[in-house]
Design brief:
7-stranded antiparallel sheet; alpha+beta
Amino acid sequence: MVAVLALLQLAALTTHKHESGLSIRIPADWTVESQPQGLLLKPPGAVFDPRRQDNAEVYIVASEPGYDAEQEREFVASLGSGFLQSGVPLTRSGERASFPAGASYTWEFRHPSTGKLFAVRVYVRPEPPRAHVILAMGDAARLASRDEEVKTFLAGLKFEAPKKNTTLADDSPLAQMWLERLRGKTLAGRPIRHLGEDGALTLGANPAIAAPAGKWRIRVQDNFAFLEITDTAGAVKLLSLSQDARGILLDGAPVSIGPAR
């Protein structure tokens, strides 16, 4: 009987794929939306409003390149920090819990607008040189109740790299890794740069009205990665790409990376 139930549960799972090469099997009654950075999952009855910071329950699935086991905590913190409320005291601060498929890191705090205990939990499954990630946000009790189910999702994540793009990046693993991380993203620094999916570069706080600034691609020279910018006059400029405990560095200066807004 137990074996029959297990087969029935397996049959009820639906596979969802992302253009990045990531795929996940989840129950058929969950809702899935494809986002630039990965897949957004909502359990039955859950509602997600991207304008709010107190959604009851939402999960974001991604496969991130650039994973280094020695910098796992910094890697995870860079993913979760953007969803924490600035200045709000934490009751749990990045507590790590290990399990067979990987580990989870949990932050908890009293949400300033509702007073309820809110949580941000990052599940990570290493598969060097990348890591599969599920970012969970919402009511702390709800996230805790689904902890085992989410661990099962994480264990079943798969990744198959799409064909290499040699138009926007050199044909090397390092260049392709940075292409995957940066294509279609906003680099929030000085200035704010928007790296279009088609290689177009624009500048400005709002990509909808940002000024055209030329083209971009990823170059590798002597095993170092660079963001190559060709401005509208044809002049070429190389900005170094690297990562340390502060996060992503562009020409030595920290920048935050997010989806095009």
